[in-house]
Amino acid sequence: MDLMLIAVVVAVAVFDFTNGFHDAADMVATAIASRAMRPAVAIALVTGFTFIAPFTVGLAVADTIGTFVDISGVDARTGQIVIIAALLAAVTYNLATWLLGYPSSSSNSLAGGLVGAGLYAAGADSINWGLDSLGDMSLDGVMKVIAGLLFSPLIGLVFGFAIMRMFRRLFRRFTMRAKVLFNASQYFSVAWLGFSHGANDAQKGMAIIGMMLLATGSTSDFSVPDWAIVLCACAITLGTMFGGWRIIKTLGFGLYRLRTVHAVANQLSAAAVNSLATSIGAPTSTTQVVTATLLGNGAADKPGHVRWRTAAGIVAGWWLNLPISILLGVVYTLFLLSLWRN
Hints:
This protein is an all-alpha fold and about 350 residues long. Helices cover about 75% and strands about 0% of the residues. About 55% of the residues are buried. The mean pLDDT is about 80.
């Protein structure tokens, strides 16, 4: 196997590990903060369903991510460098935001890294911006990626608000007996959230491996082999097992005083948005969807109790995510091309 291909496969495993590491905290934060289950139980539940998902859904998201940058017009080595630079950009942003304790989007980081690296190495014409398809009222290429990544938080905010309002109406006389029911229901909603995460996020690493196989000439067209599905499922699952406490603290305790009803509304809303996006092949960020639905839950219940300054800091990080990742993609491509030529 080509050494560069091996390097990319290892880099994809690292990226998926950091992806799972980052997103695990988002998925279990509300269950832990509401004291519905112990951290070890919540992690085990999310981990198990994250692993199962990639084997039971299609590869529509991988097709979207793996085909919006066309590297067939550059030589094989440059194409490989584009992919490695994009991965390095995504891992760098993931680790930096994890150290700061802010939830960020692994998906935005990877998409931004691909755009930056593709622009520098292959030019703007190598990128399927999807503008022609917009005229036909359909989504394709970068437009489909943007639609999934930018609109999913807005839809999550609306879903979170609507489900929380519905819960408030249905459970006006919330008693301790109902609290037991809500706590028990979190085993289902957390499992669904973990499944939706595995179904959407794991496919991004698979897409990168499919691109690399095409760049090295190992395949004649974009496709994802079975071993890549197994590798990505294992890597993202391992990362999920070691999810970080910094982000759990921010989401579970930093936005507002979270109660059981918020936790259930959040998990159901986020899982629904992720599942809806996966069904049309649009990538989402589990981090952003979970955070947006949590803000929607809080706004529907007691908006004055939401720490909007903390929320603003998180959202500011989202706006910076894509441009910084594009810039990192350019810098890493420049560095790797210089290194290779020397």
